[in-house]
UniProtKB/TrEMBL annotation:
Pfam families: HNH (PF01844). Residues 137-179 form the HNH domain. One of its GO terms (molecular function) is nucleic acid binding. It comes from Candidatus Woesebacteria bacterium GW2011_GWB1_39_12. This is HNH domain-containing protein. It comes from the Bacteria.
Amino acid sequence: MRQKQVVSLIQEQLLPLVDENVSIHVYYDQGNRVEVYSRDTPNPNNVNNKKHPSARVIAKFPVEVIPPLLNNNVQFRVLIEGKEYIYRVGGSSGRNPIWAFRNSAKCVNCGIEGVEWRLCLGKDHHLSLKLHAANGRELTRDHIVPRSKYHLVYGTREGRDSWENSQVMCAKCNNNKSDTMPEGIQCWFDESTWGDDNWII
């Protein structure tokens, strides 16, 4: 996505959807300069986190808005009651779970599809950006080969958080799958001796 398109997306599809009681600054690092796009609230004192013991929804964005930002260095900085909370949209394709949704927003198991992203401030006082279906169910990033078993399959932990090892699952299907191995993939290394390059067979 070109820089002008990113700017247009931020100004026209992101900022207008933010809670009117919240001030937000979107930082767009273009390499040679950083541009800031803001939407300030006229009533900053109307927000009281104590009234929201669970996650507080800061904004709801259409499903197609966020993935185009992945290859760009974009940060959300939300100001609530004098405190700033930061969420980085772009970044490492491994640690950033949003990368799992770059090509699809549909659960690979049940087929439920995400329709909106929710930027939330949780009760742990951290910002999160999560995808939800029309019925409210959360769509998650699932590790195809479970992180706990990845090194037993490939002999290394490197790559377990890569987007190649990621797929989209709704929270229910992901929970049911747990750490089940995909069909046709088996562990080649023994858990008790892994590290000494000892094979099971």
